[in-house]
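Need a sequence for this fold. Nothing fancy.
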C-alpha cells in the first residue's frame, strides 16, 4: 500500500470503523473457544427461547443453545469460507487475466466472453446453480462465492496487464528475442 493510499484510508472514518469492526470480529472468532460462555451445540430445552440474561448475554434459541456462543463459532466458519473463496477467486482471476492479456488473440476473446457470461448471471441465481450442481455444503458455498468474485479480479488484472504488455521495455525485450518465461 502506498503512502498516499494509506493516508487516505486512515483519514476516512468509515474505512477505519469498518477495519476496526472486522478486526474485532476476526479476533473474537479466533478466540471463540475461550470467549464463548457455553458450548454452542449443547441443547438445553429447559432454557429455550430465553431473553438476554447474565448467563446468556444474547439469549437462547428454540433448542436452548446460547446465541452468543453460536455467533462466535459461526463467525469462524463464515470468515474461513469467505477468505478461502476470495483467495481462490483472486488467484484464478489474476492467472486468467494475465494469460488473456499476454496471449491475446483467440484466448483473449474467449476469456472476455466467459467473463461476460459470468457477470450476466445475478449473484443469487449463480449461487443456486452452483449448489444445485455440487450439492449443499461448505465447498459449494466457496465455489459459488469464488465464481461470483472471479470476473472482477480477472477483468481488473487483464486491464492492468494490457497496459504493462504494451510498454516499450517489454516490446524491446521481445524484439531482442527474450522468451515469455524470461519476460
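Here you go.
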Amino acid at each position: 500500500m502506498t503512502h498516499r493510499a494509506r493516508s487516505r484510508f486512515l483519514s476516512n472514518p468509515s474505512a477505519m470503523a469498518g477495519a476496526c469492526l472486522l478486526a474485532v470480529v476476526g479476533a473474537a472468532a479466533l478466540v471463540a473457544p475461550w470467549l464463548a460462555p457455553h458450548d454452542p451445540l449443547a441443547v438445553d430445552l429447559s432454557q429455550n427461547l430465553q431473553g438476554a440474561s447474565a448467563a446468556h448475554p444474547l439469549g437462547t434459541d428454540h433448542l436452548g443453545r446460547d446465541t452468543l456462543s453460536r455467533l462466535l463459532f459461526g463467525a469462524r466458519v463464515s470468515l474461513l469460507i469467505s477468505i478461502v473463496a476470495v483467495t481462490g477467486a483472486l488467484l484464478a482471476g489474476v492467472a486468467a487475466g494475465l494469460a488473456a492479456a499476454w496471449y491475446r488473440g483467440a484466448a483473449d476473446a474467449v476469456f472476455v466472453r466467459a467473463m461476460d457470461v459470468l457477470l450476466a448471471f445475478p449473484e443469487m441465481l449463480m449461487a443456486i446453480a452452483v449448489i444445485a450442481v455440487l450439492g449443499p455444503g461448505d465447498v459449494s458455498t466457496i465455489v459459488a462465492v469464488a465464481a461470483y468474485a472471479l470476473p472482477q479480479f480477472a477483468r481488473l488484472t487483464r486491464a492492468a496487464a494490457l497496459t504493462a504488455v504494451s510498454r516499450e521495455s517489454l516490446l524491446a525485450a521481445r524484439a531482442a528475442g527474450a522468451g515469455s518465461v524470461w519476460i
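For context: The CA atoms of residues 29 and 87 lie 19 Å apart.
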